[in-house]
Structures are given as structure tokens and as C-alpha cells.
Design a protein that fits this description.
Length: 840
């Protein structure tokens, strides 16, 4: 009897629950009907609905059912429907809260009704002809559902083109057999053509003034969806309009890899995430409430999806349609960026609502999906790297939202006084920026992914521990020598200084140029400095050094730093990219790349000007390598002429050079009679052997000089720091130079000659064609051991002749062979090529 009584009580409680839920559903229907005009009332209704779930009768019913195990399973089935309804009501029709949970058919119908109820009818049902293009491959069920839904469209001036990519499931016959109110053309391809090819194929034979690209897994929720889009694209400056896409319920089970709940928003436009080295497209709105005011809005967007995209035919043709470099991914983003680049506006119209069965269009093979993602990401970086980075950064600095609504995020590292850091933070926050205070990386502080720039006020803060994607800014308050002594100083992108003295110190002691910013409380000046950096034509230097720990032992590193100094002084911010960064997105941001050719080939990108400067290793040069570049420079006249006849790339000579501010007369080093600076590479070097035989004081500095290669008493050190070399060159009576066999045979003159002569040194070298003209006969050359011995004896006895030749050689180098001169040649070549790169 007690058990029956408990069952009766539970049944009564369930009746009360159903009555309460019925009242709640009525409240919801009333709220949805008045959504746009009575938002406040809707919110109050939802609060009332929340209270239903908290009522004692509901709690008691659930409690009793959980304690009555034999009865609970039966009554759980009775409660399942009302409980899902409560969740649906509480979410405003947005479906289940749990990812992967499946919504009911009734909830989907309720959401569709709510979407329709909040909309006024479209003002047009006819007008310019719209060609609806639908791609399909073995998607018969999706295609049929899509076409039947499109058939209800109230806008009447429509033609449909179905492009079938080799289906074997009868899809073409279904499309041709349906009785639709619009003419349907089916293009049958024998193979699975790319998204771009197939859509461009349909566009080429279409008749519409407007083209609507529509996925076969998309079906309209409202009859006026197309009318809304046509209304919105009417202004002549609007190039394309996108729609509100909503996840439907999972028919036949959960979507594979579903990230968001049923009946939530899938798309309300595309924004660009600046948290990566190059801003990447990200879907806006995924998982959000599809009934929210922002989901229904008509607003400008950075980009749109081609799952449903209405495009003005003339604008589509003007940019060449969809690019064929993509493989089922980012074609639409590329199209939108091209439309914007020609002045077209992109609008999102949330009134046009459609279901999107998103997973239906994804490749089933995970490996294929990953390969496509990688390929498309690289294609996007190739096409848009410098431009999207510059435009998105400038927009963020100015507080705009053309690419993202996220504020510019900068971190500050305190140094010369916490007060300065606080004043700077307040000034930047006043610009609308987000400001964070950072600690040292070795303190274990994590950097937020949204961080975009770091301003360092502490000279001891090692920026090499920061992600390379950040804009790194040094603010030197005082003691510039402490800053310039840091090995990472030349890695700063921007240097700020409070007075002219510090500006001059930076110029004289580094590869950087400083910007004068009077006070840390001047946020506008900081913004202007970063904006100027972003607007400038920026260069990237690629050097084949494996990692930073060995960089200072590579001659190419100092070559690159000297070139960086000259480019920066010419107004072009420049970054060095070591081997690990060559393929990274951070190296896709600069407008011009210069690859200092070593043993590795660097990647090239379409949106950049790609220059190759071959200063050594003639054995690795091939016509195929040269063909990848927009222009090739070679540090040898005969080799340049020979390669120019074998490649499609322009090839011109550009000789080696020196930095006269680093290499200058400074006779404060050890006074060696004979000085040779160079590594052995584990082989004997002829000029060293020949010099040893003379019996004169010989000093050799370099690595890998084993005892079987030279008497250890001649080896004075494994290296000379680069900033000390001038002292050694200037102080030696004779500097010896030689060439590796392949370099001499191909006419590549050693860089050692340029540096030593810039110091006013007297040099004896082995002979190489062109050396006399290069240095105005300042360098003495020899042919064999006996001649070298005679020359050494002669010139050691004639210091005036040595001095005269040293001065003559220095004058030749300063007049023609500085990095400033080489930078001018590189800039002059790159400038017209930039116009071509930016039009690709």
C-alpha cells in the first residue's frame, strides 16, 4: 500500500510539473513573438521560466524518482520531454547545452518558428536575376533537401546551377527530376573538381547579375532569406552579403567532431585573430544564441563564408573569381579580401537565416583534412601575409574593428622606475588599448595568447625568450650603454628614446634607429611610432644559422647585421630570421625578403618580394633555385653572367661589402707581423703553410686548427669577437687573405678583404680575377711560396708603402663597397617589384 501511495503522489507531482511547463511554454511563445520590441519583457519571462525549474514540486519529483530505483527508469522517460523543453526555453530556443547532445525535432521546429516570428517580411520578391550555384558530390540526400527548401523562396527571379563533381549516387538525376519553380541546370563533371574550379565554372555560364554560392548542406529557414540578401546588396558599394547560419539538430546521431551544441549559431561572419604571427580567419558566433540581437543584425564584416554568399557578379569577375590555389578551405576568405581590396564592402545580414549541416561537407579522412588545412594555411600566408598583418595591426592601433573587435593588447616590462611604467600603462589604456604588466620570462610568468606587443623598460630583460610574433619595443630611459651591451638589442623592432643624445647613441652603437618620444605619458606618440613601423616597407633577412646559440660564430650573422643597419637607416625596419623561422608565419609578415644564400634553400611567398643574394657557395646555385626569386644578386661578375643565361630570374652582380662604422682604423690591438683570421675547416690552407715557411711572426685566429694542420704555437685563439676585429686588422703589419678554391674559380672575392681594407690595413692575398679593379690596386697578390716570402720581406721593410696602400684600399671601399651602397641597390630593385607583389 505504501508503494502505491508513493506512486500516486509522484504521478500527482508530475501532473503539476507538466502544468507548470505548459504555462512556461506559453510564456516563451509570447516572449518570442514580441522579441524585437519587448526585449526587457523577454528577459523577465526567462527569469520566470528559471523559477519553474526551482519550484519545490519539481525538486521533490526528481528526488523521489532518484530514490525509487525500480520506478525511476519508467518515470525518467516521462520526464525526458518536459526537461528538454525547460532547457530549450531557458536558452531561448538555442537547444541543448551539452556539446554533442542531440536536440529534439520539436525544439528545432520551435527555434525555426522563433526565428521567423522575429522578422519583418522582405521588401522585395523580384528584381535582379540571382544565380544560385550549388556544388555536389555524392550528397544526394543533402542536395534534395537543399533544393526542396530553396523551392520555397519567395524571391522569384532565380536560376539554379548545380555543379556535380562525378557523383555515383544519382544526385544529378535527383536535381533534374525535381519539380521546382525555378529553372535548374546541372553541370556534370566526370571528376571531383576543386571548390574554386567548380564554382568558377558555374559562374562563367550563369546569367544572373547576382550570384549566390550555396552549400548543398545548407537549407533556408525562412522564405524571405534571398529577398533580405538582395535588399542588403542593393547599394553599389556593397560587393557581397552573407547570412546567419545555425546548427540544426543532429539527424541520425551526433556530428563527427562536433564542437558546438545543436540549435546554436554556426556563423555570423568571419573576423581575423591577431593572436598569431599573421592574423588568421576565425568564424564569428559559433556556439552563440541564434536569437540574440547581434545574430539578427545587419552589419559590416571583415569576411564572410561561401556556405551562403551573395556576390555582385561584376565585383566577382573583377577579382578573377575564386583562387585556384586553395583546396576546399579559405577560398571564400581570399575572395572577400580581394573584394575589399578593390573597395567593396562586405555585409552580414542576420535576417537571412539558414540551417547548416556543417559536417556534411568535410572530408571523411582525417589525414586529408589535416593536409588540406596545412595547404590552405600556407596558401593564405603566401597570398596575404604582409598585407593582412599590416592592415589588421594599423586598424587595431587606431581602435577600429574592420578585422577584429578585440582591442590592441600590449605588455609592459618595468625597468627604470615603476612610476614610468604606471604612467605609460595609463596613457596607453586611455587609447582604448588593453595593457598588461609582465614579469621576466624566467619567473615562469605565462604570456596571454592575445598579447601583440611588449614595451620593455628594463635593459636586462632578454627578449629572445619572447615569442617571435610579438612587436618588441625598447624604451631607453637612461644609460643607453647598458642597453647597447645586450646581445639581443638589435632584435628589437622599435626603439624609443626621450632625448636626442640617446637617439644618437643608438645610431652609433647598434643596427637600430631610435624614435624620439618625449615622455612615457605620451600614449599617442607610442601609437604613432608603432604605426610608422607597420606602414614602412619592412625587410626580412634569412640567414642559414641553425639556432641563436651559435649565431656569433657565423660570419653571415655579422654580414646580415651590417645590412640590417643600412636598411634601417634608409627607413626600412628589418628583422633577421635564422633557419628555424624561415617557414614560420612570422617570416611571412615582411614585404621584402633577402636570402643570404648558404647551404639551405629558403621558401618564397607570392605576396613578398623575394630577393636572393649569393655571396658564397657557388656549388649550390642552380637555375631551378634562381627561378624561385624575383631578382638574384651574385657577388661575382662572371658567375652572374653565366647564371643569367640559364634562369628566368633577373640576375645582376652585387659584390660583398663592409660596415665602415664597425671596421675602421683603430690600431690598439696586438702588433702581429703577419695576421690570418679564418677557420681551417679541417683542411690545410695554402697561404698559412706558405707564411709559416717564411719564419716571420705569424698569428692565426680561427677554429679547427689541429696540430697536424699547423704548429700550435702559431694559433693565438679560436676566434676574435667581431667588434674587436678592427683592432687586430689595424694593428697588424700585414693581413693575409686567401680564397677557397671554388670561390676563387668562380670570381667570388673574399669578404675579409673589404673588412681589412676598411680598417686601413695592408693586405697580401692570393690572386683572383677582378681584385685589382675592385680595390684600385691596393691589394698585393702572390703566386707561389717564394713570391710570398719576397713580398713579405719587401713590405715589412717599407711601412710608408704599406700605409699608402692601406689608405688607397680604404678609400676604394668607402667609395663603392659599403653596406649603405648595397642597401640602396637592394631597395631600388625591390621598390618596383613591390607593386607587382601587391597586385598578385
Amino acid at each position: 500500500m505504501n508503494e502505491l501511495k508513493r506512486i500516486a503522489e509522484l504521478e500527482a507531482q508530475i501532473e503539476r510539473l507538466e502544468r507548470d511547463l505548459g504555462q512556461a511554454q506559453q510564456l516563451r511563445r509570447e516572449a518570442v513573438a514580441a522579441r524585437d520590441l519587448q526585449t526587457a519583457k523577454l528577459n523577465r519571462s526567462r527569469e520566470q521560466l528559471d523559477s519553474v525549474r526551482r519550484r519545490r514540486s519539481v525538486r521533490v519529483a526528481l528526488s523521489v524518482s532518484s530514490r525509487s530505483r525500480p520506478i525511476v527508469d519508467a518515470f525518467r522517460r516521462l520526464l525526458a520531454g518536459p526537461r528538454r523543453a525547460v532547457r530549450t526555453i531557458r536558452r531561448g530556443g538555442a537547444g541543448p547545452t551539452a556539446r554533442g547532445a542531440q536536440a529534439s525535432a520539436a525544439a528545432e521546429l520551435d527555434l525555426a518558428a522563433a526565428i521567423r516570428a522575429g522578422l519583418e517580411p522582405a521588401s522585395v520578391d523580384h528584381g535582379p536575376l540571382v544565380t544560385i550555384v550549388i556544388l555536389n558530390r555524392d550528397g544526394r540526400a543533402h542536395l534534395e533537401r537543399c533544393l526542396r527548401a530553396v523551392a520555397t523562396t519567395r524571391y522569384r527571379d532565380v536560376e539554379i546551377i548545380v555543379v556535380d563533381n562525378g557523383s555515383t549516387d544519382g544526385s544529378p538525376e535527383v536535381a533534374e527530376g525535381l519539380d521546382l519553380p525555378f529553372p535548374v541546370t546541372v553541370i556534370r563533371n566526370s571528376e571531383n573538381r576543386s571548390f574554386s574550379d567548380a564554382n568558377d565554372q558555374a559562374a562563367a555560364v550563369s546569367s544572373g547579375e547576382l550570384i549566390c554560392f550555396l552549400n548543398n548542406d545548407v537549407d533556408p529557414i525562412t522564405e524571405d532569406w534571398l529577398g533580405y540578401l538582395v535588399e542588403t546588396i542593393a547599394p553599389p558599394d556593397v560587393a557581397a552579403v552573407g547570412a546567419r547560419l545555425v546548427y540544426p539538430r543532429h539527424r541520425g546521431g551526433a556530428r563527427g567532431g562536433a564542437r558546438f551544441a545543436d540549435l546554436t549559431l554556426q556563423h555570423r561572419g568571419v573576423a581575423f585573430d591577431r593572436a598569431e604571427a599573421v592574423p588568421m580567419p576565425r568564424v564569428m558566433g559559433a556556439g552563440e544564441d541564434p536569437l540574440a540581437p547581434f545574430a539578427v543584425a545587419v552589419e559590416e564584416r571583415p569576411a564572410l563564408t561561401a556556405a551562403c554568399l551573395l556576390v555582385r557578379r561584376a565585383a566577382f569577375d573583377a577579382v578573377g573569381g575564386f583562387a585556384t590555389t586553395y583546396d576546399y578551405g579559405l577560398e571564400d576568405v581570399d575572395l572577400c579580401l580581394n573584394l575589399r581590396a578593390t573597395g567593396g564592402r562586405l555585409l552580414y545580414d542576420g535576417r537571412a537565416a539558414l540551417w547548416h549541416h556543417e559536417s556534411a561537407t568535410r572530408a571523411a579522412d582525417p589525414e586529408l583534412r589535416r593536409a588540406r588545412v596545412t595547404h590552405n594555411r600556407e596558401a593564405y600566408l603566401d597570398d596575404w601575409g604582409p598585407r593582412i598583418y599590416r592592415d589588421a595591426l594599423l586598424d587595431a592601433l587606431a581602435g577600429g574593428n574592420r578585422f577584429s573587435a578585440a582591442p590592441f593588447h600590449v605588455g609592459i616590462v618595468a625597468g627604470w622606475g615603476d612610476g614610468a611604467a604606471r604612467g605609460l600603462a595609463d596613457a596607453l589604456a586611455a587609447l582604448g588599448w588593453r595593457v598588461s604588466h609582465l614579469t621576466r620570462p624566467d619567473d615562469g610568468a605565462s604570456l596571454e595568447p592575445s598579447l601583440e606587443a611588449v614595451i620593455v623598460l628594463d635593459h636586462a630583460y632578454d627578449i629572445r625568450d619572447l615569442p617571435r610574433r610579438l612587436v618588441e619595443i625598447a624604451w631607453i630611459g637612461d644609460t643607453p650603454g647598458d642597453w647597447l651591451a645586450r646581445p639581443w638589442f638589435d632584435d628589437f623592432d622599435i626603439v624609443l628614446a626621450p632625448n636626442a643624445e640617446i637617439v644618437e647613441a643608438v645610431r652609433g652603437g647598434s643596427a637600430k634607429t631610435a624614435t624620439l618620444v618625449p615622455a612615457t605619458t605620451d600614449g599617442a606618440s607610442v601609437r604613432d611610432a608603432i604605426s610608422a613601423w607597420a606602414r614602412a616597407t619592412r625587410f626580412g633577412l634569412r640567414v642559414g644559422i641553425p639556432d641563436r646559440t651559435v649565431a656569433e660564430r657565423w660570419g653571415d650573422y655579422y654580414f646580415a647585421r651590417a645590412l640590417q643597419r643600412s636598411l634601417e637607416r634608409a627607413g626600412h625596419p628589418t628583422r633577421l630570421h635564422l633557419l628555424p623561422d624561415w617557414s614560420a608565419p612570422v617570416a611571412a609578415r615582411e614585404d621584402v625578403t633577402i636570402h643570404l644564400l648558404g647551404l639551405k634553400e629558403a621558401p618564397t611567398r607570392r605576396s613578398q618580394v623575394n630577393l636572393l643574394w649569393q655571396i658564397s657557395h657557388p656549388d649550390v646555385a642552380t637555375p631551378q633555385l634562381y627561378d624561385h626569386y624575383d631578382h638574384v644578386f651574385v657577388a661575382s661578375d662572371p658567375f652572374a653572367a653565366r647564371m643569367a643565361a640559364r634562369t628566368t630570374a633577373p640576375v645582376t652582380p652585387l659584390h660583398q661589402a663592409t660596415d665602415p662604422e664597425r671596421f675602421r682604423p683603430d690600431p690598439t690591438g696586438p702588433a702581429h707581423e703577419l695576421l690570418f683570421v679564418g677557420n681551417s675547416r679541417n683542411v690545410r690552407r695554402r697561404i698559412v703553410d706558405d707564411a709559416v715557411s717564411t719564419g716571420h711572426d705569424l698569428a692565426v685566429y680561427g677554429g679547427r686548427w689541429r696540430p697536424d694542420l699547423i704548429d700550435p704555437r702559431f694559433v693565438k685563439g679560436d676566434r676574435i669577437p667581431n667588434d674587436e676585429l678592427r683592432r687586430y686588422y689595424s694593428s697588424a703589419a700585414i693581413v693575409l687573405n686567401d680564397h677557397w678554391h671554388d670561390m676563387r674559380a668562380e670570381g667570388f672575392i673574399s669578404n675579409r678583404l673589404y673588412d681589412a681594407l676598411a680598417c686601413g690595413a695592408f693586405v697580401i692575398s692570393d690572386h683572383i680575377d677582378g681584385i685589382e679593379a675592385e680595390f684600385d690596386d691596393a691589394v698585393v697578390t702572390y703566386g707561389d711560396r717564394e713570391e710570398l716570402a719576397r713580398l713579405i720581406e719587401r713590405y715589412l721593410a717599407d711601412p710608408d708603402e704599406r700605409r699608402w696602400r692601406g689608405e688607397r684600399g680604404r678609400a676604394a671601399v668607402l667609395a663603392r663597397h659599403t653596406f649603405d651602397a648595397r642597401a640602396r641597390d637592394l631597395i631600388a630593385t625591390a621598390t618596383p617589384l613591390l607593386l607587382v607583389a601587391r597586385s598578385r
